[in-house]
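ok trying again, last paste got cut off:
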Amino acid sequence: MVGLTIFWCVIGGILSLVGFYFINHKSKNQRDYTVLGIVLLAIGIMVAVGAQLNIYINGTQEDLVRFLFWTRD
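nice, full thing came through this time. structure:
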């Protein structure tokens, strides 16, 4: 469960970074990708927060401690 949480947090972070890039990006033909950037940023944040909430609500205490402090078995 911890591995999937970390995976989805990374995916959410990548989506957020791509969204942030599109917010600040102007193409050569003056297309504006601000709306696409805002959507990707919002989806990325929701994916990362949702993965963390899932381990907090559905995970065991051992899973939560392992995720928060990156400890090994």
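cool. The chain has a mean pLDDT of 85. Residues 2-69 form one domain.
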